[in-house]
Design goal:
- The chain is built from 12 helices and 28 strands.
- The protein is of the alpha+beta class.
- Strand 8 and strand 9 form a beta hairpin.
- Helix 2 packs across helix 3 and helix 2 runs parallel beside helix 4.
Protein backbone atom coordinates (compact mmCIF):
# COMPACT_ATOMS: atom_id res chain seq x y z
CA UNK A 1 0.00 0.00 0.00
CA UNK A 2 1.37 3.41 -0.99
CA UNK A 3 1.03 5.94 1.84
CA UNK A 4 3.96 8.32 1.54
CA UNK A 5 5.66 10.74 -0.80
CA UNK A 6 9.43 10.41 -0.71
CA UNK A 7 11.37 13.57 -0.03
CA UNK A 8 13.97 12.82 -2.71
CA UNK A 9 11.54 13.56 -5.53
CA UNK A 10 10.87 17.03 -4.19
CA UNK A 11 14.15 18.27 -5.62
CA UNK A 12 12.63 17.69 -9.04
CA UNK A 13 9.75 19.98 -8.19
CA UNK A 14 11.92 22.70 -6.67
CA UNK A 15 13.77 23.29 -9.96
CA UNK A 16 11.05 25.79 -10.89
CA UNK A 17 12.85 28.71 -9.26
CA UNK A 18 15.46 30.53 -11.32
CA UNK A 19 16.57 32.90 -8.59
CA UNK A 20 18.91 32.27 -5.70
CA UNK A 21 17.66 32.99 -2.21
CA UNK A 22 20.93 34.59 -1.18
CA UNK A 23 20.62 37.29 -3.84
CA UNK A 24 18.36 39.84 -2.17
CA UNK A 25 19.29 42.82 -4.33
CA UNK A 26 19.82 45.25 -1.48
CA UNK A 27 16.81 44.17 0.63
CA UNK A 28 17.49 43.63 4.33
CA UNK A 29 15.71 40.33 4.92
CA UNK A 30 13.74 39.97 8.15
CA UNK A 31 12.01 36.97 9.72
CA UNK A 32 8.65 37.83 8.18
CA UNK A 33 10.27 37.89 4.73
CA UNK A 34 11.55 34.37 5.34
CA UNK A 35 8.14 33.17 6.53
CA UNK A 36 6.43 34.78 3.53
CA UNK A 37 8.85 33.07 1.14
CA UNK A 38 8.23 29.75 2.88
CA UNK A 39 4.48 30.21 2.43
CA UNK A 40 4.85 31.08 -1.24
CA UNK A 41 7.30 28.26 -1.99
CA UNK A 42 5.15 25.64 -0.26
CA UNK A 43 1.95 26.69 -2.00
CA UNK A 44 3.68 27.15 -5.35
CA UNK A 45 4.96 23.58 -5.12
CA UNK A 46 2.09 21.59 -3.61
CA UNK A 47 -1.15 23.60 -3.44
CA UNK A 48 -3.98 21.78 -5.21
CA UNK A 49 -5.10 24.99 -6.96
CA UNK A 50 -1.63 26.45 -7.62
CA UNK A 51 -2.37 27.01 -11.30
CA UNK A 52 -5.51 29.01 -10.45
CA UNK A 53 -3.79 31.62 -8.23
CA UNK A 54 -1.88 34.25 -10.28
CA UNK A 55 0.45 35.13 -7.39
CA UNK A 56 1.54 31.47 -7.21
CA UNK A 57 2.70 31.31 -10.84
CA UNK A 58 6.28 30.07 -11.28
CA UNK A 59 7.38 33.30 -12.99
CA UNK A 60 5.33 35.68 -10.84
CA UNK A 61 8.45 37.23 -9.25
CA UNK A 62 11.67 38.18 -11.03
CA UNK A 63 13.82 37.65 -7.94
CA UNK A 64 13.66 37.34 -4.18
CA UNK A 65 13.69 41.07 -3.60
CA UNK A 66 10.61 41.36 -5.79
CA UNK A 67 8.88 38.64 -3.75
CA UNK A 68 9.91 40.04 -0.35
CA UNK A 69 8.80 43.59 -1.14
CA UNK A 70 5.49 42.43 -2.59
CA UNK A 71 4.47 40.43 0.47
CA UNK A 72 5.52 43.21 2.83
CA UNK A 73 2.29 44.82 1.71
CA UNK A 74 0.40 42.29 3.83
CA UNK A 75 -0.10 42.68 7.57
CA UNK A 76 1.04 39.21 8.71
CA UNK A 77 2.04 35.74 7.48
CA UNK A 78 -1.54 34.66 8.12
CA UNK A 79 -2.72 37.46 5.82
CA UNK A 80 -0.27 36.33 3.12
CA UNK A 81 -1.47 32.75 3.41
CA UNK A 82 -5.13 33.77 3.29
CA UNK A 83 -4.62 35.87 0.17
CA UNK A 84 -2.86 33.02 -1.63
CA UNK A 85 -5.74 30.60 -1.06
CA UNK A 86 -8.08 29.92 -3.97
CA UNK A 87 -11.59 31.22 -3.22
CA UNK A 88 -11.37 30.55 0.53
CA UNK A 89 -14.66 29.48 2.08
CA UNK A 90 -16.12 28.25 -1.21
CA UNK A 91 -13.50 26.24 -3.15
CA UNK A 92 -10.73 26.00 -0.55
CA UNK A 93 -12.62 25.56 2.70
CA UNK A 94 -10.00 23.79 4.77
CA UNK A 95 -6.37 24.93 4.27
CA UNK A 96 -4.78 26.55 7.30
CA UNK A 97 -1.54 27.84 8.77
CA UNK A 98 -0.28 27.68 12.37
CA UNK A 99 2.38 29.64 14.23
CA UNK A 100 3.31 26.72 16.49
CA UNK A 101 4.00 23.45 14.72
CA UNK A 102 4.66 21.67 18.02
CA UNK A 103 1.00 22.17 19.00
CA UNK A 104 -0.04 20.97 15.53
CA UNK A 105 2.10 17.83 15.78
CA UNK A 106 0.70 17.10 19.23
CA UNK A 107 -2.84 17.57 18.00
CA UNK A 108 -2.24 14.98 15.26
CA UNK A 109 -1.52 12.55 18.09
CA UNK A 110 -4.61 13.48 20.08
CA UNK A 111 -2.64 15.77 22.43
CA UNK A 112 -4.30 19.14 22.97
CA UNK A 113 -4.59 21.90 25.52
CA UNK A 114 -8.06 21.09 26.79
CA UNK A 115 -10.27 20.90 29.86
CA UNK A 116 -11.63 17.61 28.51
CA UNK A 117 -15.17 18.82 27.78
CA UNK A 118 -15.88 18.00 24.13
CA UNK A 119 -18.99 19.80 22.94
CA UNK A 120 -21.09 21.02 20.07
CA UNK A 121 -22.64 24.47 19.79
CA UNK A 122 -26.19 24.81 18.55
CA UNK A 123 -28.39 27.78 17.69
CA UNK A 124 -31.48 28.23 19.85
CA UNK A 125 -34.72 26.87 18.48
CA UNK A 126 -36.50 30.21 19.01
CA UNK A 127 -34.64 31.81 16.05
CA UNK A 128 -32.64 34.19 18.25
CA UNK A 129 -28.86 34.56 17.86
CA UNK A 130 -28.35 32.78 21.16
CA UNK A 131 -26.27 29.62 21.19
CA UNK A 132 -26.14 26.72 23.62
CA UNK A 133 -23.59 23.97 24.06
CA UNK A 134 -24.21 20.28 24.60
CA UNK A 135 -21.52 18.00 26.01
CA UNK A 136 -20.72 15.22 23.57
CA UNK A 137 -18.35 13.36 25.84
CA UNK A 138 -15.69 13.95 28.48
CA UNK A 139 -12.08 12.90 27.99
CA UNK A 140 -10.75 10.53 30.65
CA UNK A 141 -8.41 11.96 33.31
CA UNK A 142 -9.34 15.55 32.46
CA UNK A 143 -10.43 18.46 34.60
CA UNK A 144 -13.97 18.17 33.25
CA UNK A 145 -14.13 14.55 34.37
CA UNK A 146 -12.87 15.42 37.85
CA UNK A 147 -15.48 18.20 38.10
CA UNK A 148 -18.37 15.87 37.24
CA UNK A 149 -19.20 17.16 33.77
CA UNK A 150 -20.94 14.47 31.72
CA UNK A 151 -22.37 13.74 28.30
CA UNK A 152 -25.71 15.43 27.78
CA UNK A 153 -25.05 18.46 30.00
CA UNK A 154 -26.41 21.66 28.46
CA UNK A 155 -24.69 25.03 28.95
CA UNK A 156 -25.50 28.49 27.64
CA UNK A 157 -23.11 30.90 29.34
CA UNK A 158 -19.38 31.34 29.89
CA UNK A 159 -18.12 33.50 32.74
CA UNK A 160 -21.68 34.72 33.23
CA UNK A 161 -22.22 35.86 29.62
CA UNK A 162 -24.86 34.33 27.38
CA UNK A 163 -23.34 32.56 24.36
CA UNK A 164 -24.32 34.03 20.99
CA UNK A 165 -23.33 33.67 17.36
CA UNK A 166 -21.04 36.69 17.70
CA UNK A 167 -19.28 35.97 20.99
CA UNK A 168 -18.83 32.19 21.33
CA UNK A 169 -15.38 32.28 19.73
CA UNK A 170 -14.06 34.94 22.08
CA UNK A 171 -15.63 33.36 25.16
CA UNK A 172 -14.69 29.73 24.59
CA UNK A 173 -11.57 29.80 22.43
CA UNK A 174 -9.47 32.69 23.71
CA UNK A 175 -6.01 32.43 25.26
CA UNK A 176 -7.33 31.99 28.80
CA UNK A 177 -6.72 28.57 30.32
CA UNK A 178 -9.86 28.58 32.42
CA UNK A 179 -13.49 29.68 32.28
CA UNK A 180 -16.70 29.13 34.23
CA UNK A 181 -19.38 27.11 32.46
CA UNK A 182 -22.96 28.04 33.28
CA UNK A 183 -25.31 25.09 32.84
CA UNK A 184 -28.94 25.26 31.76
CA UNK A 185 -32.18 23.33 31.40
CA UNK A 186 -32.91 22.25 27.83
CA UNK A 187 -36.35 23.91 27.68
CA UNK A 188 -37.33 22.44 24.31
CA UNK A 189 -34.27 23.83 22.53
CA UNK A 190 -34.24 27.32 24.03
CA UNK A 191 -32.34 26.66 27.28
CA UNK A 192 -32.89 28.53 30.53
CA UNK A 193 -29.95 29.05 32.86
CA UNK A 194 -29.98 27.25 36.18
CA UNK A 195 -27.87 27.76 39.27
CA UNK A 196 -25.21 25.20 38.37
CA UNK A 197 -21.77 26.35 37.26
CA UNK A 198 -18.26 24.92 37.26
CA UNK A 199 -14.80 26.37 36.72
CA UNK A 200 -12.87 24.33 34.14
CA UNK A 201 -9.12 24.58 33.56
CA UNK A 202 -7.23 23.52 30.45
CA UNK A 203 -4.12 21.37 30.50
CA UNK A 204 -2.26 19.28 27.97
CA UNK A 205 -4.05 15.95 27.74
CA UNK A 206 -3.90 13.01 25.34
CA UNK A 207 -7.09 11.36 24.17
CA UNK A 208 -7.21 7.74 23.07
CA UNK A 209 -9.37 7.82 19.90
CA UNK A 210 -10.24 4.12 20.25
CA UNK A 211 -12.80 5.23 22.79
CA UNK A 212 -15.25 2.33 23.20
CA UNK A 213 -15.33 -1.24 21.93
CA UNK A 214 -18.20 -3.58 22.79
CA UNK A 215 -19.97 -6.66 21.49
CA UNK A 216 -23.79 -6.93 21.54
CA UNK A 217 -25.47 -10.31 21.19
CA UNK A 218 -28.86 -9.98 19.54
CA UNK A 219 -30.31 -13.42 18.73
CA UNK A 220 -28.02 -15.01 16.15
CA UNK A 221 -26.16 -11.77 15.55
CA UNK A 222 -22.98 -10.80 17.35
CA UNK A 223 -22.53 -7.09 16.69
CA UNK A 224 -19.24 -5.35 17.27
CA UNK A 225 -19.34 -1.65 18.18
CA UNK A 226 -16.42 0.78 17.91
CA UNK A 227 -16.52 4.45 18.87
CA UNK A 228 -13.54 5.92 17.02
CA UNK A 229 -12.82 9.64 17.39
CA UNK A 230 -9.66 10.37 15.37
CA UNK A 231 -7.50 8.67 12.73
CA UNK A 232 -4.34 9.07 14.82
CA UNK A 233 -1.39 7.02 13.57
CA UNK A 234 0.14 6.62 17.00
CA UNK A 235 -2.93 4.57 18.00
CA UNK A 236 -2.90 2.21 14.99
CA UNK A 237 -1.83 -0.70 17.19
CA UNK A 238 -4.68 -0.07 19.64
CA UNK A 239 -7.13 0.07 16.73
CA UNK A 240 -5.79 -3.22 15.42
CA UNK A 241 -6.10 -4.73 18.91
CA UNK A 242 -9.78 -3.76 18.98
CA UNK A 243 -10.31 -5.73 15.78
CA UNK A 244 -8.39 -8.65 17.26
CA UNK A 245 -10.97 -8.70 20.04
CA UNK A 246 -13.85 -8.51 17.55
CA UNK A 247 -12.30 -11.42 15.68
CA UNK A 248 -11.91 -13.54 18.80
CA UNK A 249 -15.54 -12.79 19.77
CA UNK A 250 -16.69 -14.03 16.36
CA UNK A 251 -18.73 -10.97 15.44
CA UNK A 252 -20.76 -11.13 12.22
CA UNK A 253 -21.94 -7.50 12.14
CA UNK A 254 -20.03 -4.28 12.81
CA UNK A 255 -20.98 -0.72 13.77
CA UNK A 256 -18.26 1.95 13.50
CA UNK A 257 -19.29 5.16 15.23
CA UNK A 258 -17.64 8.13 13.51
CA UNK A 259 -20.10 10.77 14.68
CA UNK A 260 -17.37 12.93 16.28
CA UNK A 261 -14.44 11.88 14.06
CA UNK A 262 -13.10 14.78 12.00
CA UNK A 263 -10.49 12.67 10.23
CA UNK A 264 -6.72 12.23 10.25
CA UNK A 265 -4.21 9.95 8.55
CA UNK A 266 -4.97 8.52 5.11
CA UNK A 267 -2.81 5.49 5.92
CA UNK A 268 -4.83 4.79 9.09
CA UNK A 269 -8.03 5.13 7.06
CA UNK A 270 -6.69 2.47 4.70
CA UNK A 271 -5.75 0.23 7.61
CA UNK A 272 -9.27 0.54 9.03
CA UNK A 273 -10.84 -0.45 5.70
CA UNK A 274 -8.49 -3.44 5.59
CA UNK A 275 -9.50 -4.44 9.13
CA UNK A 276 -13.18 -4.41 8.21
CA UNK A 277 -12.59 -6.58 5.14
CA UNK A 278 -9.45 -8.64 4.38
CA UNK A 279 -10.77 -10.33 1.24
CA UNK A 280 -9.54 -7.48 -0.98
CA UNK A 281 -5.86 -7.45 -0.03
CA UNK A 282 -3.91 -5.66 -2.78
CA UNK A 283 -7.02 -4.24 -4.45
CA UNK A 284 -7.44 -0.53 -5.10
CA UNK A 285 -8.84 1.32 -2.08
CA UNK A 286 -8.63 5.02 -3.00
CA UNK A 287 -7.15 7.39 -5.58
CA UNK A 288 -5.52 10.79 -5.17
CA UNK A 289 -5.45 13.79 -7.53
CA UNK A 290 -2.60 16.30 -6.98
CA UNK A 291 -1.64 19.40 -8.95
CA UNK A 292 0.04 19.07 -12.34
CA UNK A 293 3.47 19.90 -10.93
CA UNK A 294 3.42 17.00 -8.47
CA UNK A 295 1.81 14.59 -10.94
CA UNK A 296 4.51 15.25 -13.53
CA UNK A 297 7.26 14.59 -10.96
CA UNK A 298 6.00 11.23 -9.68
CA UNK A 299 4.87 7.93 -11.21
CA UNK A 300 1.13 7.30 -11.37
CA UNK A 301 1.43 4.46 -8.85
CA UNK A 302 2.26 7.02 -6.16
CA UNK A 303 -1.32 8.30 -6.26
CA UNK A 304 -3.00 4.95 -5.58
CA UNK A 305 -3.76 3.42 -2.15
CA UNK A 306 -4.40 -0.30 -1.76
CA UNK A 307 -5.97 -2.60 0.80
CA UNK A 308 -3.22 -4.19 2.87
CA UNK A 309 -2.71 -7.00 5.36
CA UNK A 310 0.01 -5.24 7.33
CA UNK A 311 0.49 -2.08 9.35
CA UNK A 312 3.89 -0.67 8.57
CA UNK A 313 4.57 2.79 10.00
CA UNK A 314 7.83 4.69 9.81
CA UNK A 315 8.94 8.03 11.20
CA UNK A 316 10.06 11.02 9.11
CA UNK A 317 13.58 9.56 8.96
CA UNK A 318 12.33 6.29 7.50
CA UNK A 319 12.85 4.31 10.71
CA UNK A 320 10.35 1.49 11.27
CA UNK A 321 8.25 2.22 14.36
CA UNK A 322 5.36 -0.25 13.96
CA UNK A 323 4.95 -3.42 11.95
CA UNK A 324 2.18 -5.92 12.62
CA UNK A 325 -0.33 -8.07 10.78
CA UNK A 326 -3.77 -6.53 10.38
CA UNK A 327 -6.63 -8.29 12.14
CA UNK A 328 -9.17 -8.53 9.32
CA UNK A 329 -12.80 -9.53 9.81
CA UNK A 330 -13.67 -10.43 6.21
CA UNK A 331 -17.07 -8.70 6.43
CA UNK A 332 -19.18 -7.99 3.38
CA UNK A 333 -21.25 -5.28 5.07
CA UNK A 334 -20.70 -2.58 7.70
CA UNK A 335 -22.74 0.13 9.45
CA UNK A 336 -21.50 3.63 10.25
CA UNK A 337 -22.94 6.23 12.62
CA UNK A 338 -22.34 9.73 11.24
CA UNK A 339 -23.01 13.42 11.83
CA UNK A 340 -21.87 16.64 10.17
CA UNK A 341 -18.72 16.30 12.29
CA UNK A 342 -17.78 13.10 10.43
CA UNK A 343 -15.23 14.41 7.95
CA UNK A 344 -12.25 13.75 5.66
CA UNK A 345 -10.68 10.39 6.59
CA UNK A 346 -14.04 9.27 8.04
CA UNK A 347 -15.68 9.97 4.70
CA UNK A 348 -12.76 8.31 2.92
CA UNK A 349 -13.36 5.01 4.74
CA UNK A 350 -17.11 5.09 4.09
CA UNK A 351 -16.69 6.02 0.44
CA UNK A 352 -13.85 3.60 -0.31
CA UNK A 353 -15.55 0.62 1.35
CA UNK A 354 -18.82 1.36 -0.49
CA UNK A 355 -17.10 0.35 -3.75
CA UNK A 356 -16.42 -3.12 -2.35
CA UNK A 357 -19.03 -4.08 0.26
CA UNK A 358 -22.48 -3.02 1.46
CA UNK A 359 -22.23 0.16 3.54
CA UNK A 360 -25.15 1.58 5.48
CA UNK A 361 -25.37 4.76 7.56
CA UNK A 362 -27.38 5.92 10.53
CA UNK A 363 -27.19 9.60 11.43
CA UNK A 364 -26.83 12.88 9.57
CA UNK A 365 -25.05 14.05 6.42
CA UNK A 366 -21.28 14.01 6.71
CA UNK A 367 -19.13 17.14 6.38
CA UNK A 368 -18.21 16.89 2.70
CA UNK A 369 -14.42 17.06 2.92
CA UNK A 370 -12.93 14.95 0.13
CA UNK A 371 -9.62 16.81 0.10
CA UNK A 372 -6.39 16.19 2.01
CA UNK A 373 -3.30 18.06 3.14
CA UNK A 374 0.34 17.71 4.09
CA UNK A 375 2.34 19.49 6.78
CA UNK A 376 4.93 21.89 5.36
CA UNK A 377 7.82 23.36 7.35
CA UNK A 378 10.30 26.13 6.54
CA UNK A 379 13.26 24.01 5.42
CA UNK A 380 15.00 23.36 2.12
CA UNK A 381 12.65 20.51 1.23
CA UNK A 382 9.64 21.78 3.22
CA UNK A 383 9.91 18.96 5.75
CA UNK A 384 10.88 19.16 9.39
CA UNK A 385 13.70 16.71 8.78
CA UNK A 386 15.03 18.80 5.89
CA UNK A 387 18.22 20.84 5.82
CA UNK A 388 18.25 24.38 7.19
CA UNK A 389 15.01 24.15 9.18
CA UNK A 390 14.37 27.78 10.12
CA UNK A 391 14.88 28.14 13.88
CA UNK A 392 13.61 31.73 13.97
CA UNK A 393 9.93 30.78 13.95
CA UNK A 394 7.57 27.80 14.33
CA UNK A 395 5.17 28.46 11.47
CA UNK A 396 3.89 25.46 9.54
CA UNK A 397 1.20 25.08 6.89
CA UNK A 398 -1.48 22.48 6.27
CA UNK A 399 -2.55 23.35 2.72
CA UNK A 400 -4.92 21.23 0.69
CA UNK A 401 -2.85 19.32 -1.84
CA UNK A 402 -5.02 16.46 -3.03
CA UNK A 403 -8.55 15.36 -3.80
CA UNK A 404 -9.35 11.75 -3.00
CA UNK A 405 -11.96 9.35 -4.38
CA UNK A 406 -12.87 5.66 -4.26
CA UNK A 407 -11.85 3.12 -6.90
CA UNK A 408 -14.83 4.21 -9.03
CA UNK A 409 -13.63 7.84 -9.07
CA UNK A 410 -16.51 8.94 -6.83
CA UNK A 411 -16.49 11.31 -3.88
CA UNK A 412 -19.09 13.50 -2.24
CA UNK A 413 -18.10 17.16 -1.71
CA UNK A 414 -21.61 17.89 -0.39
CA UNK A 415 -21.38 15.08 2.15
CA UNK A 416 -22.65 11.52 2.32
CA UNK A 417 -26.38 11.43 3.10
CA UNK A 418 -27.80 8.46 5.07
CA UNK A 419 -30.70 6.90 3.19
CA UNK A 420 -29.87 8.88 0.04
CA UNK A 421 -26.24 8.71 -1.05
CA UNK A 422 -25.97 5.34 0.68
CA UNK A 423 -28.66 3.16 2.28
CA UNK A 424 -29.60 3.91 5.86
CA UNK A 425 -31.53 6.13 8.22
CA UNK A 426 -31.36 9.90 8.60
CA UNK A 427 -31.47 10.58 12.32
CA UNK A 428 -30.13 13.54 14.28
CA UNK A 429 -28.95 13.51 17.88
CA UNK A 430 -31.57 14.39 20.48
CA UNK A 431 -29.86 17.05 22.62
CA UNK A 432 -32.37 16.46 25.38
CA UNK A 433 -31.72 12.71 25.38
CA UNK A 434 -28.19 11.85 24.24
CA UNK A 435 -28.00 8.71 26.33
CA UNK A 436 -24.73 6.98 27.16
CA UNK A 437 -22.21 6.30 24.39
CA UNK A 438 -21.82 2.57 23.85
CA UNK A 439 -25.14 1.75 25.55
CA UNK A 440 -28.64 1.09 24.22
CA UNK A 441 -29.71 4.34 25.90
CA UNK A 442 -27.91 6.19 23.07
CA UNK A 443 -30.70 6.71 20.49
CA UNK A 444 -28.35 6.54 17.48
CA UNK A 445 -26.75 3.29 18.57
CA UNK A 446 -30.08 1.78 19.60
CA UNK A 447 -31.64 2.64 16.23
CA UNK A 448 -28.63 1.11 14.46
CA UNK A 449 -28.92 -2.13 16.42
CA UNK A 450 -32.66 -2.34 15.68
CA UNK A 451 -31.92 -1.66 12.01
CA UNK A 452 -29.36 -4.49 11.93
CA UNK A 453 -31.56 -7.02 13.69
CA UNK A 454 -34.92 -6.22 12.08
CA UNK A 455 -34.22 -4.24 8.92
CA UNK A 456 -36.74 -1.66 10.13
CA UNK A 457 -35.98 2.02 9.54
CA UNK A 458 -38.82 3.19 11.75
CA UNK A 459 -41.26 6.03 11.12
CA UNK A 460 -39.07 8.76 9.64
CA UNK A 461 -41.70 11.43 10.31
CA UNK A 462 -41.32 10.96 14.06
CA UNK A 463 -37.53 10.77 14.15
CA UNK A 464 -36.56 14.44 13.89
CA UNK A 465 -38.89 17.10 15.28
CA UNK A 466 -36.56 20.04 14.66
CA UNK A 467 -33.43 20.35 12.55
CA UNK A 468 -31.13 22.40 14.76
CA UNK A 469 -28.37 24.54 13.29
CA UNK A 470 -25.10 23.28 14.77
CA UNK A 471 -22.64 26.11 14.30
CA UNK A 472 -19.33 24.81 15.71
CA UNK A 473 -17.70 22.20 17.91
CA UNK A 474 -14.72 22.01 20.22
CA UNK A 475 -12.66 19.76 17.92
CA UNK A 476 -12.63 22.47 15.24
CA UNK A 477 -10.71 24.70 17.65
CA UNK A 478 -7.78 22.27 17.90
CA UNK A 479 -4.72 22.72 15.64
CA UNK A 480 -5.51 19.50 13.78
CA UNK A 481 -9.17 20.44 13.16
CA UNK A 482 -11.03 18.24 10.63
CA UNK A 483 -7.94 17.34 8.64
CA UNK A 484 -6.94 14.48 6.37
CA UNK A 485 -3.24 14.19 5.66
CA UNK A 486 -0.55 12.29 3.79
CA UNK A 487 2.85 11.63 5.36
CA UNK A 488 6.34 12.07 3.93
CA UNK A 489 9.30 9.79 4.53
CA UNK A 490 12.89 9.61 3.43
Amino acid sequence: MKRFFTISVLTIIFLFTSCEKTKTYGVDVNVNDEINYFIWKGLNTFYLWQQDVPDLADKRFANFADLYLYFRGYSSPEDVFENLRYEPGTIDRFSWIVNDYVALENSFQGINLSNGMEFGLVKYKNESDNVFGYVRYVVANSDAESKGVSRGNIFNSIDGTQLTLTNYQSLLFNDNNSYTVGFAAYNNGSPNSNSNAVLLTKEEIQENPVAITKVFTEGTKKIGYLLYNQFAKNYDSQLNAAFSNFKSEGINELVIDLRYNGGGSVSTATYLGSMVTGQFNGALYSQEIWNDKVKSALPEERFLNYFTDEIRNTDSQGNLILQETINSLGLDNVYFITTNSSASASELVINSLSSHIDVQLVGKTTRGKQVGSITLYDSDNLQKSGSNLNSKHKYAMQPLVLEISNKDNKNYPDGIIPGNTLPGIELGEDYNNLGVLGERSDPLLDRTLVYITTGSKGNQKTIVSHDFNEVYNSKLATPAKDYMFIEFKK
